[in-house]
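Database export, one record per block. Field names are fixed; values are copied verbatim from the stored entry.
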Amino acid sequence: MTLLTTTFYLFIYICIFNYSIILLSFSLYP
């Protein structure tokens, strides 16, 4: 994999992780 591809997948992973954290916080504090 090239550096660009690795950075792209890392960016997607971080976005998904942040989104799941936000959903979790909303479910904990309705």
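Remark 1: The CA atoms of residues 13 and 27 lie 21 Å apart.
Remark 2: The chain has a mean pLDDT of 92.
End of record.
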